[in-house]
Amino acid sequence: MRRDWIDVIRTAIWYAYIESNFSHATSYQIEKIIEPEAFVKDKNYFYHHNKWGKYKLGKHTPETELINKANQHVKGTAKIINHVLWEAIRGHKPIKWFMDDGVKRLSWDVQRIVFKSVNDQMELISVSRIRKELRRIERLSSFDALAVLIIFLRIADDQNQREIALWIGRSIYRILLVMCVFTPLANYSYGLAFLFYLNVFPLCQSEMRQYDSQDVDDFSNKCKMLNHILLVAEDRNIIDVERKGISKKRYTNFLFDIQDGKCGFEIIQFFSPPF
Length: 275
Prior knowledge:
- The chain is mainly alpha-helical.
- The chain folds into two domains: 5-81, no CATH class; 84-271, no CATH class.
- The chain contains 15 helices and four strands.
- The chain has a two-stranded antiparallel sheet.
- The radius of gyration is 20 Å and the shape is globular.
- The model has no long low-confidence stretch (mean pLDDT 90).
């Protein structure tokens, strides 16, 4: 049976986040740390199933027990592989599930933007109101931000609100660009763009042109360009890397400022999505 590309990418990214916490460790070494019982001694040597090398390539998806075990060593990795984002990209669940359950699995940073209080009850804002909140959500630059915008994109598509869908799609594109500048996602920019062009961006307008591999190449090149701009900014002290306590948030804000034309309005067009 052909393996689902979403499972390939989410597993590989899960492994990458684990790997990033074990400096220069091989898949063999990571397996010995997280799953030592997988190594069986036979006379004078140990043998194992080399599952972790396959996780690295996304060839197999780990079982729940192993995901939880890995999460004990590297906190947050269980959420990455089980994130609502993957269901939002896949789009197989009904819209009602995303609205009633999916959104509530996201961080408070996201929920406080998309929920409003009505008669002491928290209700999801209408898709017509989400446009006012796009910039706030963009700046969160996270899996949760991507997930909630894809959910609203699916709602907009379901309601045939084409203009709003296009604006949401633009924000999704901008967030994905920024997130793929940083490791470990930088190593998966092509695969992520591939998933989004197949499953997400076609929802942005009623007659989107057919998927073209050139679009993914274009996205990958834009990620590299943003990374280059970031490195130049560091070299020229536009971003003071020596400043104590500099955060990733400052880097992401700088990259969104670039997309907004801070270094020239012609750049806005360059980083705009092709759709």
